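seq:
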Amino acid sequence: MLPPVMGSSRQIGLDGRVALVTGGSRGIGLAIAKILLDAGAHVAIAGRTASDLDAAQAKLAGGEAVSLHRCDVSVPGQVAELVASVANRFERLDVLVCSHGTYAGTRSMLDVTLDEFDHTMNVNVRGVFLCAQNAARLMLAGGDGGRIILISSMNALMSQDGAVDYDASKAAVHGLTRAMAIELAPHRITVNAIAPGWVRTPMSEEELDHLSDMVLNPSRRVGEPADIARAALWLADPANGYVTGSVVVIDGGQTAMLPLPWPADRSTSVVG
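struct:
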């Protein structure tokens, strides 16, 4: 077993555990990598660009407890090589977080090309499946169970106008979550998804800037990557083995709210 990372948090102990975070070089993935590192895990982060990975390493400052890997998750050979590299470096894998994703922005479904649709599905669905499949094989070989956490979106539960490919891809991730949870449960590997609402990340910043004067949810704020990271840490807890096949929605209450006009001062209410 690997030695614990010095200075790690003990609230949820991941000492000696190894986590792989895809899309871990920015946004939600980077926040998850940091919280897992702080909890004592050794963390491998995968991303597509070397510059983002280098910047992430500087922010994490985890030393030998952090490893960097370039990977296009839609390419089977690269994913297999990624997981093999993690095994060679750390000798095991306990936690996989699939935080990678692509979003092309809003446009009419009539204008979405087949290449655009395929690209979204290849990254958001195929990439998740490939990473989970390879990671699960390594977890099975280790014999200690594991945690697979898929970062989805509230777009899997509610459709956004002009995002047909993204909506479909995130709904498919929920299907994968349930199916893989059933198959892997006998091996003590849990599979869960987190469905964030509006969270300020490099991918969402442009649209959020346009929505700055609108109320998005009952909490009346945009989420931060740390809001999602705390849920990921809970799902990664080695003691948390009875939660599987679930979707944890973190959206400030947006999907729970009946879409009626919302008073600006909340001193009055609209009742249907």
